[in-house]
Amino acid sequence: MFADRAKITIRSGKGGDGHVSFRRELYVANGGPDGGDGGRGGDVIFEVDKGLNALTDYRHKRKYAAENGQEGGKKRCHGADGKDIILKVPEGTVIKDADSGKVIADMSGENKRQIVLKGGRGGKGNMNYATATMQVPKYAQPGQPAQELAVMLELKVIADVGLIGFPNVGKSTLLTRVSNARPQIANYHFTTINPHLGVVDLEGCDGFVIADIPGLIEGASEGVGLGHQFLRHIERTRVLIHLVDAASTEGRDPIDDIYKINKELEAYDPKLMERPQVIAANKTDMIYSEDEDPVERIRQEFEPQGIKVFSISAATGKGLKELLYHVKSLLDKIDKEPVIFEQEFFPEDMLIAENLPYTVKQDEEDEHLFYIEGPKIEKMLGYTNLDSEKGFSFFQRFLKDSGILADLEAAGIEEGDTVRMYGFDFDYYK
Protein backbone atom coordinates (compact mmCIF):
# COMPACT_ATOMS: atom_id res chain seq x y z
CA MET A 1 0.00 0.00 0.00
CA PHE A 2 1.14 3.54 -0.79
CA ALA A 3 2.22 5.17 2.45
CA ASP A 4 2.16 8.96 2.45
CA ARG A 5 1.90 9.60 6.19
CA ALA A 6 3.70 8.25 9.24
CA LYS A 7 4.15 9.26 12.87
CA ILE A 8 7.52 8.48 14.43
CA THR A 9 9.54 9.41 17.51
CA ILE A 10 13.09 10.66 17.02
CA ARG A 11 15.80 11.04 19.64
CA SER A 12 19.23 12.61 19.43
CA GLY A 13 22.22 11.12 21.22
CA LYS A 14 23.14 12.03 24.80
CA GLY A 15 26.51 13.66 25.28
CA GLY A 16 29.08 11.44 27.03
CA ASP A 17 29.97 12.29 30.63
CA GLY A 18 33.31 13.81 31.47
CA HIS A 19 35.68 11.46 33.34
CA VAL A 20 37.20 11.82 36.80
CA SER A 21 40.66 10.31 37.11
CA PHE A 22 44.17 11.21 38.25
CA ARG A 23 47.54 10.57 36.72
CA ARG A 24 49.24 7.64 38.40
CA GLU A 25 52.75 6.97 37.19
CA LEU A 26 55.84 5.60 38.88
CA TYR A 27 58.18 8.34 40.01
CA VAL A 28 55.58 11.04 39.21
CA ALA A 29 54.27 12.58 42.38
CA ASN A 30 50.99 14.42 42.40
CA GLY A 31 50.29 13.72 38.76
CA GLY A 32 47.12 15.75 38.79
CA PRO A 33 43.76 15.24 37.11
CA ASP A 34 43.70 13.58 33.68
CA GLY A 35 40.00 12.76 33.14
CA GLY A 36 39.04 13.28 29.49
CA ASP A 37 35.96 14.92 27.95
CA GLY A 38 32.87 13.00 26.89
CA GLY A 39 31.96 12.60 23.23
CA ARG A 40 29.21 14.50 21.43
CA GLY A 41 25.85 12.78 21.00
CA GLY A 42 24.72 11.96 17.46
CA ASP A 43 22.35 14.18 15.48
CA VAL A 44 19.06 13.16 13.87
CA ILE A 45 19.31 14.04 10.18
CA PHE A 46 16.68 13.79 7.44
CA GLU A 47 17.93 13.30 3.90
CA VAL A 48 16.17 13.12 0.53
CA ASP A 49 16.51 9.84 -1.35
CA LYS A 50 15.48 10.17 -5.01
CA GLY A 51 14.88 6.42 -5.17
CA LEU A 52 12.03 6.53 -2.64
CA ASN A 53 8.43 7.40 -3.51
CA ALA A 54 6.62 6.44 -0.29
CA LEU A 55 7.06 6.41 3.51
CA THR A 56 6.56 2.65 3.76
CA ASP A 57 9.62 2.00 5.97
CA TYR A 58 8.25 4.27 8.69
CA ARG A 59 5.04 2.27 8.96
CA HIS A 60 6.90 -0.66 10.52
CA LYS A 61 9.40 1.04 12.79
CA ARG A 62 8.29 3.98 14.92
CA LYS A 63 11.31 4.93 17.05
CA TYR A 64 14.67 6.17 15.79
CA ALA A 65 17.63 7.22 17.93
CA ALA A 66 21.13 8.49 17.27
CA GLU A 67 24.05 7.07 19.26
CA ASN A 68 25.06 8.48 22.61
CA GLY A 69 28.52 9.94 23.03
CA GLN A 70 30.97 7.82 25.02
CA GLU A 71 32.29 8.78 28.41
CA GLY A 72 35.74 10.38 28.57
CA GLY A 73 38.62 8.17 29.68
CA LYS A 74 41.82 8.23 31.64
CA LYS A 75 44.97 9.92 30.38
CA ARG A 76 42.98 12.79 28.90
CA CYS A 77 41.29 10.47 26.40
CA HIS A 78 38.29 12.02 24.68
CA GLY A 79 35.19 9.83 24.49
CA ALA A 80 34.07 8.85 20.98
CA ASP A 81 31.31 10.93 19.39
CA GLY A 82 28.00 9.16 18.90
CA LYS A 83 27.06 8.30 15.30
CA ASP A 84 24.43 10.43 13.62
CA ILE A 85 21.27 8.69 12.42
CA ILE A 86 20.28 9.55 8.85
CA LEU A 87 16.62 9.02 7.96
CA LYS A 88 15.98 8.75 4.22
CA VAL A 89 12.70 10.20 2.92
CA PRO A 90 11.21 10.84 -0.54
CA GLU A 91 11.46 14.30 -2.03
CA GLY A 92 8.38 16.29 -1.06
CA THR A 93 8.23 14.99 2.53
CA VAL A 94 7.13 17.57 5.08
CA ILE A 95 8.25 17.00 8.68
CA LYS A 96 5.87 18.40 11.29
CA ASP A 97 5.75 18.52 15.07
CA ALA A 98 3.18 15.86 15.91
CA ASP A 99 1.57 17.83 18.73
CA SER A 100 1.21 21.27 17.13
CA GLY A 101 1.15 20.30 13.46
CA LYS A 102 3.70 23.05 12.72
CA VAL A 103 6.27 22.53 9.96
CA ILE A 104 9.81 21.66 11.08
CA ALA A 105 11.28 20.98 7.63
CA ASP A 106 10.16 20.65 4.04
CA MET A 107 12.43 18.22 2.19
CA SER A 108 11.87 19.83 -1.20
CA GLY A 109 13.64 22.15 -3.61
CA GLU A 110 17.18 22.93 -2.46
CA ASN A 111 16.65 21.37 0.98
CA LYS A 112 18.06 17.86 0.53
CA ARG A 113 19.49 17.40 4.03
CA GLN A 114 18.52 18.90 7.39
CA ILE A 115 19.52 18.34 11.01
CA VAL A 116 16.27 18.22 12.97
CA LEU A 117 17.63 17.33 16.43
CA LYS A 118 21.14 18.13 17.64
CA GLY A 119 22.97 15.68 19.86
CA GLY A 120 24.01 16.74 23.34
CA ARG A 121 27.47 18.18 23.92
CA GLY A 122 29.92 15.98 25.80
CA GLY A 123 30.78 16.87 29.39
CA LYS A 124 34.20 18.14 30.37
CA GLY A 125 36.55 15.86 32.30
CA ASN A 126 38.12 16.85 35.61
CA MET A 127 41.37 17.84 33.83
CA ASN A 128 39.56 21.08 32.88
CA TYR A 129 38.84 22.10 36.45
CA ALA A 130 42.32 22.16 37.97
CA THR A 131 43.22 25.57 39.40
CA ALA A 132 45.87 26.95 41.71
CA THR A 133 43.42 26.66 44.57
CA MET A 134 41.84 23.34 43.49
CA GLN A 135 44.56 21.01 42.33
CA VAL A 136 42.61 17.79 42.90
CA PRO A 137 39.16 18.35 41.37
CA LYS A 138 36.91 15.35 41.91
CA TYR A 139 34.22 16.76 39.67
CA ALA A 140 33.50 16.19 35.98
CA GLN A 141 30.74 17.67 33.89
CA PRO A 142 27.92 15.36 32.82
CA GLY A 143 27.03 15.16 29.13
CA GLN A 144 24.00 17.04 27.92
CA PRO A 145 20.82 15.00 27.74
CA ALA A 146 19.26 13.80 24.51
CA GLN A 147 16.38 15.60 22.80
CA GLU A 148 13.27 13.62 21.91
CA LEU A 149 10.43 14.65 19.64
CA ALA A 150 7.35 13.04 18.08
CA VAL A 151 7.10 14.07 14.42
CA MET A 152 4.59 13.51 11.63
CA LEU A 153 5.95 12.77 8.18
CA GLU A 154 3.69 13.78 5.29
CA LEU A 155 4.51 13.14 1.67
CA LYS A 156 3.06 15.78 -0.64
CA VAL A 157 3.68 14.88 -4.28
CA ILE A 158 5.50 17.45 -6.39
CA ALA A 159 3.62 18.12 -9.63
CA ASP A 160 2.91 21.17 -11.76
CA VAL A 161 -0.71 20.25 -12.37
CA GLY A 162 -3.26 18.53 -10.14
CA LEU A 163 -6.07 16.54 -11.73
CA ILE A 164 -9.13 16.71 -9.45
CA GLY A 165 -12.76 15.65 -9.51
CA PHE A 166 -15.26 13.13 -8.17
CA PRO A 167 -14.59 9.38 -8.53
CA ASN A 168 -15.25 7.85 -11.96
CA VAL A 169 -15.09 11.06 -13.96
CA GLY A 170 -12.16 9.70 -16.01
CA LYS A 171 -9.02 11.07 -14.34
CA SER A 172 -7.02 7.87 -14.70
CA THR A 173 -8.09 7.51 -18.34
CA LEU A 174 -7.03 11.09 -19.05
CA LEU A 175 -3.68 10.60 -17.33
CA THR A 176 -3.02 7.47 -19.38
CA ARG A 177 -3.95 9.24 -22.60
CA VAL A 178 -1.78 12.37 -22.12
CA SER A 179 1.24 11.09 -20.19
CA ASN A 180 3.55 8.15 -19.52
CA ALA A 181 1.67 7.13 -16.35
CA ARG A 182 -0.18 3.83 -16.32
CA PRO A 183 -2.64 3.74 -13.42
CA GLN A 184 -5.09 0.85 -13.06
CA ILE A 185 -8.51 1.70 -14.41
CA ALA A 186 -11.84 0.17 -13.38
CA ASN A 187 -15.35 1.46 -12.87
CA TYR A 188 -15.84 1.63 -9.15
CA HIS A 189 -15.30 4.34 -6.60
CA PHE A 190 -11.84 4.88 -5.21
CA THR A 191 -10.17 2.74 -7.86
CA THR A 192 -7.25 5.10 -7.60
CA ILE A 193 -5.97 4.98 -4.06
CA ASN A 194 -2.49 6.32 -4.86
CA PRO A 195 -1.59 9.63 -6.45
CA HIS A 196 -0.08 8.91 -9.87
CA LEU A 197 2.47 11.18 -11.52
CA GLY A 198 2.85 11.45 -15.27
CA VAL A 199 5.03 13.54 -17.56
CA VAL A 200 3.16 15.33 -20.35
CA ASP A 201 5.27 15.89 -23.48
CA LEU A 202 4.15 18.71 -25.77
CA GLU A 203 5.40 19.37 -29.27
CA GLY A 204 7.30 22.64 -29.61
CA CYS A 205 7.66 23.40 -25.87
CA ASP A 206 8.62 21.98 -22.51
CA GLY A 207 6.27 19.48 -20.92
CA PHE A 208 5.01 19.38 -17.33
CA VAL A 209 4.27 16.93 -14.54
CA ILE A 210 0.64 16.09 -13.84
CA ALA A 211 -0.71 14.26 -10.78
CA ASP A 212 -3.91 12.26 -10.70
CA ILE A 213 -5.35 13.06 -7.29
CA PRO A 214 -7.65 10.21 -6.19
CA GLY A 215 -11.40 10.86 -6.36
CA LEU A 216 -12.71 13.29 -3.77
CA ILE A 217 -16.07 13.17 -2.03
CA GLU A 218 -18.11 15.54 0.04
CA GLY A 219 -16.64 15.92 3.51
CA ALA A 220 -13.10 15.16 2.31
CA SER A 221 -11.75 18.30 4.00
CA GLU A 222 -13.07 16.94 7.30
CA GLY A 223 -11.37 13.60 6.73
CA VAL A 224 -14.41 11.75 5.39
CA GLY A 225 -13.35 8.78 3.30
CA LEU A 226 -9.68 9.22 2.51
CA GLY A 227 -10.08 13.01 2.43
CA HIS A 228 -6.89 14.41 3.98
CA GLN A 229 -4.77 11.66 2.44
CA PHE A 230 -5.78 12.94 -0.98
CA LEU A 231 -6.06 16.65 -0.40
CA ARG A 232 -2.52 17.09 0.89
CA HIS A 233 -1.18 16.16 -2.55
CA ILE A 234 -2.87 19.15 -4.17
CA GLU A 235 -0.99 21.68 -2.02
CA ARG A 236 2.16 21.77 -4.17
CA THR A 237 0.45 22.00 -7.57
CA ARG A 238 0.43 25.30 -9.48
CA VAL A 239 -2.59 24.69 -11.75
CA LEU A 240 -5.70 22.57 -11.18
CA ILE A 241 -7.59 20.71 -13.91
CA HIS A 242 -11.10 20.09 -12.67
CA LEU A 243 -12.46 17.04 -14.51
CA VAL A 244 -16.24 16.54 -14.61
CA ASP A 245 -18.57 14.01 -16.19
CA ALA A 246 -20.40 16.21 -18.68
CA ALA A 247 -22.61 13.30 -19.76
CA SER A 248 -23.83 12.70 -16.18
CA THR A 249 -23.37 8.95 -16.63
CA GLU A 250 -23.84 8.41 -12.90
CA GLY A 251 -26.75 10.80 -12.59
CA ARG A 252 -24.80 13.68 -10.98
CA ASP A 253 -24.99 17.30 -12.09
CA PRO A 254 -21.51 18.41 -13.30
CA ILE A 255 -22.02 22.02 -12.18
CA ASP A 256 -23.02 20.88 -8.71
CA ASP A 257 -19.96 18.59 -8.66
CA ILE A 258 -17.61 21.48 -9.40
CA TYR A 259 -19.02 23.63 -6.61
CA LYS A 260 -18.88 20.74 -4.14
CA ILE A 261 -15.23 19.92 -4.89
CA ASN A 262 -14.22 23.59 -4.74
CA LYS A 263 -15.96 23.84 -1.39
CA GLU A 264 -13.82 20.95 -0.10
CA LEU A 265 -10.64 22.58 -1.43
CA GLU A 266 -11.46 25.88 0.24
CA ALA A 267 -12.32 24.20 3.54
CA TYR A 268 -9.00 22.33 3.51
CA ASP A 269 -6.84 25.32 2.53
CA PRO A 270 -8.31 28.63 1.26
CA LYS A 271 -5.07 29.28 -0.66
CA LEU A 272 -5.97 26.45 -3.06
CA MET A 273 -8.74 28.61 -4.49
CA GLU A 274 -6.12 31.12 -5.59
CA ARG A 275 -4.60 28.58 -8.00
CA PRO A 276 -5.54 28.89 -11.67
CA GLN A 277 -8.24 26.35 -12.46
CA VAL A 278 -9.37 24.83 -15.76
CA ILE A 279 -12.53 22.79 -16.24
CA ALA A 280 -12.35 19.76 -18.51
CA ALA A 281 -15.87 18.59 -19.43
CA ASN A 282 -15.21 14.88 -20.06
CA LYS A 283 -17.17 12.00 -21.61
CA THR A 284 -18.59 14.17 -24.39
CA ASP A 285 -18.56 11.05 -26.60
CA MET A 286 -21.40 9.73 -24.40
CA ILE A 287 -23.69 12.76 -24.71
CA TYR A 288 -26.76 11.68 -26.65
CA SER A 289 -29.31 14.34 -25.72
CA GLU A 290 -30.23 16.71 -28.51
CA ASP A 291 -32.20 19.08 -26.26
CA GLU A 292 -29.39 20.70 -24.34
CA ASP A 293 -25.62 20.89 -24.63
CA PRO A 294 -24.35 20.26 -21.06
CA VAL A 295 -20.89 21.62 -21.94
CA GLU A 296 -22.38 24.94 -23.02
CA ARG A 297 -24.32 25.04 -19.74
CA ILE A 298 -21.03 24.59 -17.81
CA ARG A 299 -19.41 27.35 -19.90
CA GLN A 300 -22.22 29.81 -19.18
CA GLU A 301 -21.82 29.12 -15.45
CA PHE A 302 -18.03 29.28 -15.06
CA GLU A 303 -16.43 31.22 -17.92
CA PRO A 304 -17.88 34.51 -16.62
CA GLN A 305 -15.92 33.65 -13.42
CA GLY A 306 -12.71 33.52 -15.45
CA ILE A 307 -12.48 29.71 -15.55
CA LYS A 308 -11.92 28.32 -19.05
CA VAL A 309 -14.04 25.26 -19.99
CA PHE A 310 -12.86 22.63 -22.50
CA SER A 311 -14.99 19.98 -24.14
CA ILE A 312 -12.99 16.72 -24.13
CA SER A 313 -13.19 12.95 -24.34
CA ALA A 314 -10.39 11.17 -22.52
CA ALA A 315 -11.43 7.91 -24.19
CA THR A 316 -11.14 9.18 -27.79
CA GLY A 317 -8.62 12.01 -27.34
CA LYS A 318 -11.00 14.74 -28.52
CA GLY A 319 -10.06 18.26 -27.31
CA LEU A 320 -7.03 17.13 -25.27
CA LYS A 321 -4.45 19.03 -27.32
CA GLU A 322 -6.24 22.36 -26.79
CA LEU A 323 -6.62 21.65 -23.06
CA LEU A 324 -2.95 20.77 -22.52
CA TYR A 325 -1.56 23.74 -24.43
CA HIS A 326 -3.83 26.07 -22.46
CA VAL A 327 -2.60 24.55 -19.18
CA LYS A 328 0.99 25.01 -20.38
CA SER A 329 0.29 28.70 -21.13
CA LEU A 330 -1.02 29.12 -17.56
CA LEU A 331 2.08 27.45 -16.11
CA ASP A 332 4.33 29.78 -18.13
CA LYS A 333 2.70 32.79 -16.44
CA ILE A 334 3.24 31.45 -12.93
CA ASP A 335 6.39 31.47 -10.84
CA LYS A 336 8.19 28.19 -11.55
CA GLU A 337 9.51 27.92 -8.02
CA PRO A 338 7.96 24.89 -6.30
CA VAL A 339 5.62 25.42 -3.37
CA ILE A 340 7.83 25.16 -0.27
CA PHE A 341 6.40 25.12 3.24
CA GLU A 342 8.22 27.51 5.55
CA GLN A 343 9.56 26.32 8.90
CA GLU A 344 7.11 27.11 11.74
CA PHE A 345 8.45 24.95 14.58
CA PHE A 346 12.02 25.08 15.82
CA PRO A 347 13.06 22.17 18.09
CA GLU A 348 15.52 24.54 19.74
CA ASP A 349 12.55 26.49 21.10
CA MET A 350 12.04 23.70 23.61
CA LEU A 351 15.18 25.05 25.32
CA ILE A 352 13.52 28.46 25.81
CA ALA A 353 10.52 26.92 27.54
CA GLU A 354 12.62 24.89 29.99
CA ASN A 355 12.66 26.43 33.44
CA LEU A 356 16.38 26.09 34.21
CA PRO A 357 18.34 28.54 36.42
CA TYR A 358 20.88 31.08 35.23
CA THR A 359 22.71 34.07 36.72
CA VAL A 360 23.63 37.49 35.34
CA LYS A 361 26.38 39.41 37.12
CA GLN A 362 28.78 42.27 36.52
CA ASP A 363 32.52 41.77 36.89
CA GLU A 364 33.80 43.26 40.15
CA GLU A 365 36.90 44.77 38.57
CA ASP A 366 35.65 45.64 35.06
CA GLU A 367 32.29 47.43 34.94
CA HIS A 368 32.08 46.82 31.16
CA LEU A 369 32.18 43.01 31.51
CA PHE A 370 29.13 40.86 32.35
CA TYR A 371 28.89 37.12 32.98
CA ILE A 372 25.92 34.86 32.19
CA GLU A 373 26.16 31.37 33.67
CA GLY A 374 23.96 28.47 34.70
CA PRO A 375 22.38 25.27 33.31
CA LYS A 376 20.02 27.18 31.01
CA ILE A 377 22.87 28.90 29.17
CA GLU A 378 25.12 25.87 29.19
CA LYS A 379 22.43 23.68 27.67
CA MET A 380 21.56 26.22 25.00
CA LEU A 381 25.19 26.53 23.90
CA GLY A 382 25.48 22.76 23.70
CA TYR A 383 22.67 22.45 21.19
CA THR A 384 23.35 25.56 19.13
CA ASN A 385 25.87 26.11 16.34
CA LEU A 386 26.77 29.79 16.71
CA ASP A 387 28.87 29.68 13.54
CA SER A 388 25.75 29.31 11.37
CA GLU A 389 23.39 32.16 10.57
CA LYS A 390 20.39 30.11 11.68
CA GLY A 391 22.08 29.14 14.97
CA PHE A 392 23.12 32.70 15.79
CA SER A 393 19.62 33.97 14.97
CA PHE A 394 18.18 31.44 17.44
CA PHE A 395 20.78 32.51 20.02
CA GLN A 396 19.61 36.13 19.81
CA ARG A 397 15.96 35.11 20.07
CA PHE A 398 16.79 32.83 23.01
CA LEU A 399 18.35 35.70 24.97
CA LYS A 400 15.33 37.91 24.35
CA ASP A 401 12.54 35.36 24.92
CA SER A 402 14.21 33.93 28.04
CA GLY A 403 14.32 37.34 29.69
CA ILE A 404 18.12 37.33 29.80
CA LEU A 405 18.47 40.56 27.82
CA ALA A 406 16.08 42.28 30.24
CA ASP A 407 18.18 41.03 33.16
CA LEU A 408 21.36 42.40 31.53
CA GLU A 409 19.74 45.79 31.09
CA ALA A 410 18.57 45.73 34.69
CA ALA A 411 22.17 45.01 35.74
CA GLY A 412 23.26 48.22 33.98
CA ILE A 413 24.75 46.96 30.72
CA GLU A 414 25.48 49.61 28.08
CA GLU A 415 26.21 49.51 24.37
CA GLY A 416 29.70 48.25 23.63
CA ASP A 417 29.98 46.27 26.89
CA THR A 418 31.13 42.63 26.74
CA VAL A 419 28.98 39.63 27.64
CA ARG A 420 30.88 36.44 28.49
CA MET A 421 29.34 32.99 28.70
CA TYR A 422 31.36 29.80 28.91
CA GLY A 423 34.22 30.87 26.68
CA PHE A 424 32.14 32.98 24.26
CA ASP A 425 32.46 36.77 24.25
CA PHE A 426 29.85 39.04 22.65
CA ASP A 427 29.59 42.79 22.35
CA TYR A 428 26.26 44.17 23.49
CA TYR A 429 24.33 46.41 21.07
CA LYS A 430 20.70 47.30 21.47
From TrEMBL:
Residues 1-158 form the Obg domain. It is found in: Cytoplasm. Monomer. It is an enzyme of class 3 (hydrolase). Keywords: Cytoplasm, GTP-binding, Hydrolase, Magnesium, Metal-binding, Nucleotide-binding. Belongs to the TRAFAC class OBG-HflX-like GTPase superfamily. OBG GTPase family. Pfam families: DUF1967, GTP1_OBG, MMR_HSR1. Its cofactor is Mg(2+). An essential GTPase which binds GTP, GDP and possibly (p)ppGpp with moderate affinity, with high nucleotide exchange rates and a fairly low GTP hydrolysis rate. Plays a role in control of the cell cycle, stress response, ribosome biogenesis and in those bacteria that undergo differentiation, in morphogenesis control. It comes from Blautia hominis. Mg(2+) binds at residues 172, 192. The gene is obgE. Residues 350-430 form the OCT domain. CDD domains: Obg (cd01898). Residues 159-332 form the OBG-type G domain. It comes from the Bacteria. The keyword Nucleotide-binding applies. HAMAP family: GTPase_Obg (MF_01454). This is GTPase Obg. GTP binds at residues 165-172, 190-194, 212-215, 282-285, 313-315. Its EC number is 3.6.5.-. NCBIfam families: Obg_CgtA, Obg_CgtA_exten, PRK12296.1, PRK12297.1, PRK12299.1.
